[in-house]
Amino acid sequence: MTAKILRTEKGVALVVALMLLLVLTLIGIGAISTTTFENTIAGTERVATDAFYASEAGVQLALNQLPFNINPIARTSLKDDSYYWTGSPADKNAPKSATSFGFYNKAGYDTGWAFKRFQVNATGEAINAVKETEVHVSFGPLSSGTGYNN
Question: The pTM is what?
Answer without folding.
Answer: 0.71
